[in-house]
């Protein structure tokens, strides 16, 4: 542990930090393996969670999990813009609940080392499993502790495949003791179900928040009608499900309802897909990512503090990007894997102690009813979908913060008025849901 120990006083951070460890570890036990993932591990800040280890992954693919640590659920909250950064403690840090390790993955992201070599989720999962073996071999005192995999967006693909890979091996041999997963606003189904099918119903429902007029809605409706999805949600989202759901016969993959909706939405001043409530705040964030694009900047908080990089045991001269500008998957087709809802996720749910899927209702990058459609089209533990519509109130500090349903080992939560990054936009709700994942609050307490 000592080679990875991080100083409690870090450049750019104006307060004393608890114990943490950071650096890179290889993705296998092969001698001189040049492929390494970067991690930043934190000890629990409170009295609970000392027997739990949480992994957090951001998505992309190609985005750094330091985004999560520094702007969502870590002990350091970095805000403002690159030229006017604010840094303060995060009262809703998940380190108040357990050990947490933020891991940059796959190879090619952030401070990772080596050349990208994967073309599928199975390759990504094997890479992460190899890393976790090295991680627990290094931090032996964490072996056997309850492991929980969490993440958002494209990590909704990563995590089910990683869990499946772990369950394929003898966990006792490596000290990996997987208990469950939580995926936020996840990309775990097809683009059709996750984005295309529900987007017209989404903008119609949220037209006032998005400031859309009749002309804008009509433009998108015409495309949706031509594609056979103008009433897709109403026709297919049933509790219990009425059977498998499919693309309409007239669906043409060269025409996008989502693109049409994005074009009309972009005409609203200060609109962005990650949170549909218009906000004319920062143009770029302190980590260098304009929220309305996928173009990252080298002008960011981490690159402005080389001493901080040194303290994290990484190459000081390496420019860190919030999201890489090159592909982390080989080949022109990128990630070749089928989505988890069609492959590994049902089996993972059946093996887990707890599985939580949560989705912000103000997210347009990936849409909550898209997740709902995918769940209703999925069979696990002997039945298809939820038998009852998610309607149990999620309460935070006594106030309703969303609705949820739990059946057969799966909990699905719709977090009201949250954008894509739930821990950033609704930190109190994200914190309570993390307590629930870890078993620190009960299903009944979610309603209180």
Task: Write up this protein.
Its EC number is 3.4.16.-. It catalyses: a monoacylglycerol + H2O = glycerol + a fatty acid + H(+); a diacylglycerol + H2O = a monoacylglycerol + a fatty acid + H(+). It is an enzyme of class 3 (hydrolase). The chain has helices at 66-73, 121-138, 155-167, 171-174, 191-196, 199-205, 207-210, 214-227, 232-236, 257-265, 306-311, 345-351, 368-376, 422-425, 427-437, 443-446; strands at residues 5-6, 20-26, 36-42, 52-57, 76-81, 84-89, 99-103, 146-152, 177-184, 354-360, 379-380, 383-384, 392-396, 399-407, 410-415. It has 448 residues and is α/β, with parallel strands linked by helices. It has a domain at 193-279. A hairpin with a 2-residue loop joins strand 13 (392-396) and strand 14. Helix 8 runs antiparallel to helix 10 (257-265). The model has no long low-confidence stretch (mean pLDDT 95).
């Amino acid at each position: 542990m000592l080679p990875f120990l991080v100083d409690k006083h870090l450049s750019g951070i104006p307060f004393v930090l608890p114990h943490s460890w950071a650096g890179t570890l290889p993705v296998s036990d092969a001698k001189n393996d040049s492929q390494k993932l970067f991690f930043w591990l934190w000890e629990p800040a409170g009295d609970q969670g000392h027997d739990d280890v949480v992994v957090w992954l951001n998505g992309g693919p190609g985005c750094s999990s330091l985004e999560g640590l520094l702007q969502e659920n870590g002990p350091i909250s970095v805000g403002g813009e690159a030229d006017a950064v604010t840094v303060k403690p995060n009262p809703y840090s998940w380190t108040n609940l357990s050990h947490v390790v933020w891991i940059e993955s796959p190879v090619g992201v952030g401070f990772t080392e080596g050349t990208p070599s994967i073309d599928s989720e199975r390759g990504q999962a094997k890479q992460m499993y190899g890393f976790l073996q090295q991680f627990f071999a290094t931090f032996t005192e964490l072996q056997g502790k309850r492991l929980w995999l969490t993440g958002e967006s494209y990590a909704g693909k990563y995590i089910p495949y990683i869990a499946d890979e772990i369950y394929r091996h003898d966990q006792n041999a490596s000290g990996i003791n997987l208990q469950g997963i939580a995926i936020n606003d996840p990309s775990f189904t097809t683009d059709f179900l996750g984005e295309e099918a529900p987007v017209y119903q989404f903008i119609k429902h949220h037209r006032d928040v998005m400031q859309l007029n009749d002309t804008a809605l009509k433009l998108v409706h015409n495309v949706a009608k031509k594609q056979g999805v103008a009433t897709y949600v109403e026709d297919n989202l049933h509790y219990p499900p009425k059977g498998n759901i499919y693309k309409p016969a007239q669906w043409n993959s060269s025409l996008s309802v989502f693109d049409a909706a994005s074009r009309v939405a972009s005409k609203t001043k200060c609109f962005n897909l990650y949170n549909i409530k218009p906000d004319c705040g920062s143009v770029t964030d302190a980590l260098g990512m304009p929220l309305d694009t996928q173009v990252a900047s080298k002008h960011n908080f981490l690159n402005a503090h080389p001493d901080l990089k040194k303290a994290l045991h990484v190459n000081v001269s390496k420019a860190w990007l919030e999201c890489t500008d090159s592909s982390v998957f080989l080949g022109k087709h990128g990630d070749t894997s089928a989505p988890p809802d069609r492959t590994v996720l049902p089996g993972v749910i059946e093996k887990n102690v707890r599985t939580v899927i949560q989705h912000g209702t103000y997210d347009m990058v990936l849409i909550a009813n898209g997740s709902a459609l995918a769940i209703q089209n999925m069979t696990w533990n002997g039945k298809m979908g939820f038998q009852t519509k998610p309607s149990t109130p999620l309460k935070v500090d006594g106030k309703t913060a969303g609705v949820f349903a739990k059946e057969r080992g799966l909990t699905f939560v719709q977090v009201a008025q949250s954008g894509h990054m739930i821990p950033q936009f609704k930190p109190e709700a994200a914190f309570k849901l993390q307590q629930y994942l870890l078993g620190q609050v009960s299903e009944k307490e979610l309603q209180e």
